[in-house]
Protein backbone atom coordinates (compact mmCIF):
# COMPACT_ATOMS: atom_id res chain seq x y z
CA UNK A 1 0.00 0.00 0.00
CA UNK A 2 1.40 3.41 -0.92
CA UNK A 3 1.01 6.59 1.09
CA UNK A 4 -1.52 7.77 -1.48
CA UNK A 5 -3.72 4.68 -1.05
CA UNK A 6 -4.22 5.00 2.68
CA UNK A 7 -6.08 8.34 2.72
CA UNK A 8 -8.35 7.02 -0.03
CA UNK A 9 -9.17 3.88 1.93
CA UNK A 10 -9.64 5.90 5.11
CA UNK A 11 -12.03 8.21 3.26
CA UNK A 12 -13.98 5.24 1.93
CA UNK A 13 -14.27 3.77 5.43
CA UNK A 14 -15.42 7.13 6.78
CA UNK A 15 -18.00 7.42 3.99
CA UNK A 16 -19.34 3.94 4.74
CA UNK A 17 -19.54 4.70 8.46
CA UNK A 18 -21.45 7.92 7.76
CA UNK A 19 -23.78 6.03 5.42
CA UNK A 20 -24.46 3.33 8.02
CA UNK A 21 -25.19 5.91 10.72
CA UNK A 22 -27.49 7.90 8.44
CA UNK A 23 -29.46 4.83 7.36
CA UNK A 24 -29.75 3.73 10.98
CA UNK A 25 -31.15 7.15 11.91
CA UNK A 26 -33.47 7.47 8.91
CA UNK A 27 -35.10 4.05 9.20
CA UNK A 28 -35.25 3.76 12.98
CA UNK A 29 -32.77 0.95 13.56
CA UNK A 30 -33.61 -2.10 15.65
CA UNK A 31 -36.05 -0.24 17.87
CA UNK A 32 -37.95 1.11 14.88
CA UNK A 33 -38.30 -2.41 13.49
CA UNK A 34 -39.63 -3.67 16.81
CA UNK A 35 -42.17 -0.85 16.93
CA UNK A 36 -43.25 -1.69 13.40
CA UNK A 37 -43.70 -5.41 14.00
CA UNK A 38 -44.97 -5.67 17.58
CA UNK A 39 -48.57 -4.37 17.19
CA UNK A 40 -49.30 -6.61 14.21
CA UNK A 41 -47.63 -9.56 15.88
CA UNK A 42 -49.76 -9.08 18.99
CA UNK A 43 -52.90 -8.77 16.87
CA UNK A 44 -52.35 -11.98 14.91
CA UNK A 45 -51.25 -13.90 18.03
CA UNK A 46 -54.39 -13.00 20.00
CA UNK A 47 -56.66 -13.56 17.02
CA UNK A 48 -55.06 -16.95 16.37
CA UNK A 49 -55.75 -17.98 19.97
CA UNK A 50 -59.32 -16.76 20.52
CA UNK A 51 -60.60 -15.51 17.09
CA UNK A 52 -61.83 -12.37 18.88
CA UNK A 53 -61.37 -9.33 16.64
CA UNK A 54 -62.13 -6.77 19.36
CA UNK A 55 -59.60 -7.99 21.92
CA UNK A 56 -56.90 -8.38 19.26
CA UNK A 57 -57.53 -4.88 17.90
CA UNK A 58 -57.58 -3.25 21.35
CA UNK A 59 -54.35 -5.01 22.33
CA UNK A 60 -52.58 -3.90 19.14
CA UNK A 61 -53.69 -0.29 19.57
CA UNK A 62 -52.78 -0.34 23.26
CA UNK A 63 -49.23 -1.54 22.67
CA UNK A 64 -48.79 1.09 19.92
CA UNK A 65 -49.77 3.85 22.33
CA UNK A 66 -47.50 2.35 24.99
CA UNK A 67 -44.54 2.47 22.58
CA UNK A 68 -45.16 6.18 22.00
CA UNK A 69 -45.36 6.83 25.75
CA UNK A 70 -42.07 4.99 26.30
CA UNK A 71 -40.45 7.09 23.58
CA UNK A 72 -41.76 10.30 25.16
CA UNK A 73 -40.59 9.31 28.63
CA UNK A 74 -37.13 8.46 27.30
CA UNK A 75 -37.11 11.69 25.24
CA UNK A 76 -36.43 9.78 22.05
CA UNK A 77 -37.51 10.34 18.46
CA UNK A 78 -41.20 9.48 18.24
CA UNK A 79 -41.82 9.63 14.48
CA UNK A 80 -41.63 5.85 13.99
CA UNK A 81 -43.80 5.13 17.03
CA UNK A 82 -46.35 7.78 16.03
CA UNK A 83 -46.55 6.44 12.48
CA UNK A 84 -47.16 3.02 14.00
CA UNK A 85 -50.04 4.34 16.10
CA UNK A 86 -51.72 5.95 13.10
CA UNK A 87 -51.29 2.81 11.02
CA UNK A 88 -52.72 0.58 13.75
CA UNK A 89 -55.58 3.03 14.42
CA UNK A 90 -56.61 3.01 10.76
CA UNK A 91 -56.40 -0.78 10.75
CA UNK A 92 -58.58 -1.04 13.84
CA UNK A 93 -61.19 1.31 12.31
CA UNK A 94 -61.28 -0.68 9.06
CA UNK A 95 -61.55 -4.01 10.84
CA UNK A 96 -64.24 -2.81 13.24
CA UNK A 97 -66.30 -1.31 10.43
CA UNK A 98 -66.27 -4.43 8.30
CA UNK A 99 -66.03 -7.07 11.01
CA UNK A 100 -63.28 -8.74 8.97
CA UNK A 101 -60.00 -9.28 10.81
CA UNK A 102 -58.03 -9.16 7.54
CA UNK A 103 -59.06 -5.54 7.10
CA UNK A 104 -56.82 -4.69 10.05
CA UNK A 105 -53.93 -5.05 7.61
CA UNK A 106 -55.53 -3.33 4.61
CA UNK A 107 -54.42 0.29 5.30
CA UNK A 108 -50.82 -0.83 5.72
CA UNK A 109 -50.98 -2.82 2.49
CA UNK A 110 -52.39 0.13 0.56
CA UNK A 111 -49.69 2.35 2.05
CA UNK A 112 -47.01 -0.13 0.96
CA UNK A 113 -48.41 -0.19 -2.57
CA UNK A 114 -48.56 3.60 -2.72
CA UNK A 115 -45.00 3.87 -1.39
CA UNK A 116 -43.73 1.38 -3.97
CA UNK A 117 -45.29 3.44 -6.77
CA UNK A 118 -43.90 6.65 -5.27
CA UNK A 119 -40.36 5.24 -5.31
CA UNK A 120 -40.68 4.25 -8.96
CA UNK A 121 -42.51 7.34 -10.23
CA UNK A 122 -40.23 9.85 -8.48
CA UNK A 123 -37.17 8.07 -9.85
CA UNK A 124 -38.55 8.15 -13.38
CA UNK A 125 -39.22 11.86 -12.85
CA UNK A 126 -35.56 12.45 -11.92
CA UNK A 127 -36.08 13.07 -8.20
CA UNK A 128 -35.72 9.63 -6.55
CA UNK A 129 -37.65 9.48 -3.30
CA UNK A 130 -34.83 7.90 -1.32
CA UNK A 131 -32.72 10.97 -2.12
CA UNK A 132 -35.46 13.26 -0.81
CA UNK A 133 -35.58 11.18 2.39
CA UNK A 134 -31.85 10.85 3.00
CA UNK A 135 -30.64 14.19 1.61
CA UNK A 136 -31.37 16.12 4.83
CA UNK A 137 -29.92 13.28 6.93
CA UNK A 138 -26.63 13.53 5.03
CA UNK A 139 -26.78 17.36 5.23
CA UNK A 140 -26.74 17.55 1.44
CA UNK A 141 -30.40 18.45 0.92
CA UNK A 142 -30.99 18.46 -2.86
CA UNK A 143 -27.40 19.22 -3.91
CA UNK A 144 -27.13 15.69 -5.32
CA UNK A 145 -29.61 16.58 -8.09
CA UNK A 146 -27.37 19.05 -9.93
CA UNK A 147 -23.93 18.93 -8.30
CA UNK A 148 -23.34 15.25 -7.58
CA UNK A 149 -24.45 13.06 -10.52
CA UNK A 150 -22.80 9.93 -9.14
CA UNK A 151 -24.78 10.24 -5.96
CA UNK A 152 -27.99 10.93 -7.87
CA UNK A 153 -27.43 7.70 -9.80
CA UNK A 154 -26.98 5.80 -6.52
CA UNK A 155 -30.20 7.27 -5.14
CA UNK A 156 -31.99 6.24 -8.34
CA UNK A 157 -30.75 2.65 -8.02
CA UNK A 158 -31.77 2.54 -4.36
CA UNK A 159 -35.23 3.95 -5.10
CA UNK A 160 -35.78 1.39 -7.86
CA UNK A 161 -34.74 -1.33 -5.42
CA UNK A 162 -37.20 -0.11 -2.77
CA UNK A 163 -40.01 0.18 -5.30
CA UNK A 164 -39.50 -3.27 -6.82
CA UNK A 165 -39.07 -4.98 -3.44
CA UNK A 166 -42.26 -3.41 -2.10
CA UNK A 167 -44.14 -4.31 -5.29
CA UNK A 168 -43.00 -7.92 -4.91
CA UNK A 169 -44.26 -7.88 -1.34
CA UNK A 170 -47.64 -6.56 -2.52
CA UNK A 171 -47.78 -9.25 -5.22
CA UNK A 172 -47.64 -11.85 -2.44
CA UNK A 173 -49.94 -10.19 0.07
CA UNK A 174 -52.88 -8.95 -2.02
CA UNK A 175 -53.81 -12.41 -3.43
CA UNK A 176 -53.60 -13.81 0.10
CA UNK A 177 -55.79 -10.99 1.35
CA UNK A 178 -58.53 -11.92 -1.12
CA UNK A 179 -58.31 -15.70 -0.99
CA UNK A 180 -56.20 -16.75 2.00
CA UNK A 181 -57.21 -17.81 5.49
CA UNK A 182 -57.26 -14.88 7.93
CA UNK A 183 -54.83 -16.40 10.43
CA UNK A 184 -52.41 -17.69 7.81
CA UNK A 185 -52.52 -14.36 6.00
CA UNK A 186 -51.66 -12.53 9.23
CA UNK A 187 -48.63 -14.71 9.90
CA UNK A 188 -47.37 -14.39 6.34
CA UNK A 189 -47.69 -10.62 6.57
CA UNK A 190 -45.72 -10.55 9.83
CA UNK A 191 -43.05 -12.80 8.29
CA UNK A 192 -42.72 -10.33 5.39
CA UNK A 193 -42.35 -7.26 7.61
CA UNK A 194 -38.60 -7.32 8.24
CA UNK A 195 -36.77 -9.33 5.51
CA UNK A 196 -37.82 -7.11 2.54
CA UNK A 197 -37.06 -4.01 4.61
CA UNK A 198 -33.58 -5.27 5.52
CA UNK A 199 -32.89 -6.20 1.90
CA UNK A 200 -33.87 -2.71 0.71
CA UNK A 201 -31.77 -1.02 3.41
CA UNK A 202 -28.78 -3.24 2.60
CA UNK A 203 -29.02 -2.46 -1.12
CA UNK A 204 -29.29 1.24 -0.30
CA UNK A 205 -26.11 0.97 1.77
CA UNK A 206 -24.32 -0.88 -1.04
CA UNK A 207 -25.25 1.75 -3.65
CA UNK A 208 -24.43 4.74 -1.44
CA UNK A 209 -21.20 3.27 -0.07
CA UNK A 210 -19.87 3.16 -3.65
CA UNK A 211 -21.18 6.61 -4.54
CA UNK A 212 -19.31 9.93 -4.20
CA UNK A 213 -19.53 11.46 -0.71
CA UNK A 214 -22.38 13.88 -0.01
CA UNK A 215 -21.85 17.62 -0.38
CA UNK A 216 -22.39 19.19 3.05
CA UNK A 217 -24.40 22.26 2.06
CA UNK A 218 -24.75 23.33 5.69
CA UNK A 219 -20.96 23.45 6.08
CA UNK A 220 -20.75 25.42 2.84
CA UNK A 221 -23.27 27.96 4.10
CA UNK A 222 -21.44 28.30 7.41
CA UNK A 223 -18.13 28.78 5.59
CA UNK A 224 -19.69 31.42 3.32
CA UNK A 225 -21.14 33.27 6.30
CA UNK A 226 -17.81 33.12 8.11
CA UNK A 227 -15.97 34.44 5.06
CA UNK A 228 -18.50 37.26 4.74
CA UNK A 229 -18.10 38.23 8.40
CA UNK A 230 -14.32 38.17 8.11
CA UNK A 231 -14.49 40.25 4.95
CA UNK A 232 -16.59 42.88 6.65
CA UNK A 233 -14.23 43.02 9.65
CA UNK A 234 -11.16 43.40 7.43
CA UNK A 235 -12.68 45.97 5.05
CA UNK A 236 -12.49 49.05 7.40
CA UNK A 237 -8.82 48.47 8.21
CA UNK A 238 -7.95 48.35 4.51
CA UNK A 239 -9.24 51.88 3.88
Compose a concise summary of this entry.
The protein is mostly helical and 239 residues long.
What this model shows, in words?
It is a single chain. The chain has helices at 5-27, 29-50, 53-73, 79-98, 106-124, 129-134, 143-146, 149-179, 182-191, 194-209, 217-238. It has 239 residues and is mainly α. The longest helix has 31 residues, at 149-179. The chain is elongated, with a radius of gyration of 23 Å. Residues 1-7 have low confidence and may be disordered. It has 2 domains: 11-76, no CATH class; 100-216, no CATH class. It is built from 11 helices and no strands.
Distance between the termini: 53 Å
N-to-C SSE string, H for helix and E for strand: HHHHHHHHHHH
Radius of gyration: 23 Å
| Structural class by sheet pairing and helices | mainly alpha
Transmembrane segments: 21-47, 53-74, 81-98, 110-138, 159-179, 185-208
Keywords: Membrane, Transmembrane, Transmembrane helix
Protein name: Membrane protein
SSE diagram, text form:
Layout: H1 5-27, H2 29-50, H3 53-73, H4 79-98, H5 106-124, H6 129-134, H7 143-146, H8 149-179, H9 182-191, H10 194-209, H11 217-238
Helix pairs in contact: 1-2, 1-10, 2-3, 2-4, 2-9, 3-4, 5-8, 8-10
Features:
239 residues, mainly alpha, 2 domains, 11 helices, 81% helix, 0% strand
Amino acid sequence: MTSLDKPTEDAQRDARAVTEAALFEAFGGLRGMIETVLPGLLFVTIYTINKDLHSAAIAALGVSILLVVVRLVMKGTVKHAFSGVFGVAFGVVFAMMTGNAKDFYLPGMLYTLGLALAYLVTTLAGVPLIGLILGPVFKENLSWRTRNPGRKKAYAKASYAWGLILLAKCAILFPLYWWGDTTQFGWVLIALKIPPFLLAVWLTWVFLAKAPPPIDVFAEMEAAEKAEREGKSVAPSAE
